[in-house]
Write a structure and sequence with these properties.
The complex is a heterodimer of chains A (179) and B (278). By secondary structure, chain A is mainly beta. Chain A contains two helices and eleven strands. In chain A, strands 1-3-4-5-6-7-8-11 form an eight-stranded antiparallel β-barrel. A two-stranded antiparallel sheet of chain A has the order 9-10. Chain B is built from six helices and eight strands, in the order αββββββββααααα. In chain B, a hairpin with a 5-residue loop joins β2 and β3. In chain B, α3 packs antiparallel against α4, α4 packs antiparallel against α5 and α5 runs antiparallel to α6. Classes of the chains: A mainly beta (179), B alpha/beta (278). Chains A and B meet through β3, β4, α2 and β5 of A and α3 of B.
Chain lengths: 179, 278
Amino acid sequence: MDKKFFLAILLLALPRPAPADSQWILEESTLTYHASHPLHQTEGVSHAAKGKGVCHAGQCDFLIAVSVKSFDSGDSNRDLHMLQVVRGGQFPLITVRTHLPEDAGALATIPADLEVQFAGQTVQYKQIAFQHVTKGSEALITGTIPLTLTDFKIDPPTLLALPVKNEIPVRVEMKWRSQ
Amino acid sequence: MNLRAAKGAVAFCINILLLSASHPAVAQAPNTSLSGAITSATGAAVPNAKITIKNLASGQTSETQTDSSGHYNASNLTPGDYELAVVAEGYSTNTLKVTVISGSPKTADVTLAGVLSLQDLGISSDQAQGTAQDQARLNKRSHILMLHQRLGLIAAVPLVATVATSFGAGGRSTSTGDRWAHLVLGSAAGDLYFMSAYFAIRAPRIPGTQTRGQIRVHKALAWIHGPGMILTPILGAIAFDQKSKGEKVHGIASAHGPVAIVTAAAYGAAIVSVSFKF
């Protein structure tokens, strides 16, 4: 009894090991932008995003990058016009950085502050809600980033002299795997 | 002291009292300072990190940066709530809120977690960086195609008018006025058409792109209305000559009407194919 008691005290007294470093890799992604014009609605889809997350001492840092050219709206002329309007020739990538506490993985809805670099501009988006589902060592993340053309100083493209709407929400669906 | 001097002294004192009452002395809260250390996740100091300090009540911002040991100091801050944004090259931006209390210097240390770069994602610096020349080519393409679009839309107006005047110009009509109007409108339509076509052909190609979607229909229709816009005026000139001689339009010239209708229909379909989504 005394031995067990002292052993228990000893185990409790031992310092807990710090959370081990871990990494997350973006396995699959679907990014969809939605542009509204009086004559029609357009969606452009990309599956080409690359992403990585590094966790250290209970804090995680994520970086996601996707090529502007990879977005496909189904019409090459429209995609090239989009590429020109968003200055994709000079700034070919969209990058998103975020910093989360590691225990955010336990939440069903993760509020994230995003730093988005696009069209040569950097814009912060605060408290963007992402739905989170864990499946084994994989995490499925979905959400919508409320991008606007004015945020990134993009002149709205026009068709038949009518401009598209300023709001260009980007729907994000990602599958992350823990390493 | 005589009465007059005493009255003056009392008036002076009353004035002093009144002035004091209207401008009561207000105790000012002394300003204070905010300082701290910026470190990476490994504990290393982060020099030259830019810190933006924003007073949440007034919206005023001030900036400072860390020294070689990663320390920063912002003095003379009025008490209140502030938001700090820490930016350092190679690190994610980190923000935090602090409350600064009068007469009590505040310490706020920030850890910039992790350093992820595009190279960590397998993206080379070439892939990450575009060129001004690439953007200039895209800009030129868009500008030229905008001219093509506008001229093409403008050309549709005399084209429709030409078709409308064809009923008075051909058939059994003997009106020379209608015939001339048809000819002038047709010429104007043709001039605008070929100007529009010139810009479409001259628009720069973007290497590595494939033609996909409704634009393929638009380009394919050009193989109908392009030759049609050449053939129609040729046949029209023959028909015009026959009518001018008082003859009935005959022979190959009788194809002028059908060729013109097919050309106009293909032209209209080309406009619709890039204006609406099917």
